[in-house]
Amino acid sequence: MAKAERGPRERMIFSAAQLIRRDGVVSTGMREVAVDAAAPRGSLQHYFPGGKAQLVDEAVGWAGGYAAGRVERFLAALPEPTPSGLFASMVRQWTDEYEADGFAGGCPVAAALVDCAEAVPSTRKAASAAFSTWTGAVAEALTEMGVPGERAGPLATLMISSLEGAILLARAERDVRALTTVARELGPVLDAAVREKGG
Amino acid sequence: MAKAERGPRERMIFSAAQLIRRDGVVSTGMREVAVDAAAPRGSLQHYFPGGKAQLVDEAVGWAGGYAAGRVERFLAALPEPTPSGLFASMVRQWTDEYEADGFAGGCPVAAALVDCAEAVPSTRKAASAAFSTWTGAVAEALTEMGVPGERAGPLATLMISSLEGAILLARAERDVRALTTVARELGPVLDAAVREKGG
DNA sequence: CCTCGACTATGACCGTGGTCATAGTAGTCT
DNA sequence: AGACTACTATGACCACGGTCATAGTCGAGG
């Protein structure tokens, strides 16, 4: 991951997301975040007066924006954009990471949900917003590829649901099998939704 | 949920699963489990000398068996078994719960993974085994319905991945939309895998 | 009755971690 | 220089929670 050379505030949000991804929200300490971000501990209460909840919420929001940004970049990188190609790119981001760095991390939004959905209302809303941002980006990409408007939303939901679930399975099994499986199974289904253009 | 009138040990495992489902592993205290199970605190160290890890592992294992058992019961309850019907039943279990009791809980296996996958190796293995048990039951059901053997496994993985992901989305959004969407989108795909029998 | 095992009951210990309080530094504007 | 703001630095407080130690109950068997 590119180490953004931004200010300490952004570095802490980024570090929080990374640590949450690996250990979950509750097991991730504020002090730990500061150390990981090479930021002074005192900055935590300065930049995040709302405490841990605020930091977590911002980390979740960052993750949502990051995922949406990736979708756009995947789209731009595809020589011939197809829904299956986009989904394959999204999945490959995970298989690449798992094969290169091991199965240490999951999705930070999922982690925040599991740990905070019931206990911290603002975090649940942040997670909802993150998914919404992400799903919106995917749906928009599908529409640009020729998927009818009323089909783009449901298919985006299906893609992200499958991906999130496959991430869980892959992490449990320490094997990318589930990820490659959903990509292979869903690819043709997604492409079938593109309205025929050329014949 | 039927309150099993078993011994305190099983009640504690059941309670642990329920609490983990709602709050995650780390936020669920041992004392809390004992109270919820109406079991004496002293029984914790008696029945689970391996400590919290053992309790969590057994809760995850119980959840896997429970899910697999549900699959068989869904299958038996379907007048005319089809893959889409089975998947609809699996999804409906969640929509029913969410509509009746609110969006408080997620999948305990997912929760255990998020919180412990990296920190507690035995729990990661327990989660893997739980998914395996569950996936196996689904694959077997698909095979009985006429899905070719080499297709059953991948489709079972797809079903469980989508379901797990949709649970996350539904909980975030506090709306069963994602669950009903994946059921609707995947139904025809699953049924298409049944080899034609009658024409 | 005594004992032994299974189970229950509690209090103590100790690390962890979020938060708060209080200061200290550094740069800038007047 | 003085003052004001932004940021850094730390120590203390306090609650929580897993674990351990110790002891109590209670039924069965001899």
From TrEMBL, chains A, B:
Q: Which residues form a coiled coil?
A: none
Q: Where is the Transcriptional regulator LmrA/YxaF-like C-terminal domain?
A: 87-184
* GO MF term (any one): DNA binding
Annotated HTH tetR-type domain residues: 16-59
Question: Gene3D superfamilies in the record, alphabetically?
Answer: Tetracycline Repressor, domain 2
Q: Which UniProt keywords apply?
A: DNA-binding, Transcription, Transcription regulation
Pfam families listed in its UniProt record: TetR_C_13_2, TetR_N
Q: Which PANTHER family match?
A: HTH-TYPE TRANSCRIPTIONAL REGULATOR LMRA (PTHR47506:SF3), TRANSCRIPTIONAL REGULATORY PROTEIN (PTHR47506)
Q: What is this protein called?
A: AcrR family transcriptional regulator
Species? Streptomyces paradoxus
Show the taxonomic lineage. Answer: Bacteria, Bacillati, Actinomycetota, Actinomycetes, Kitasatosporales
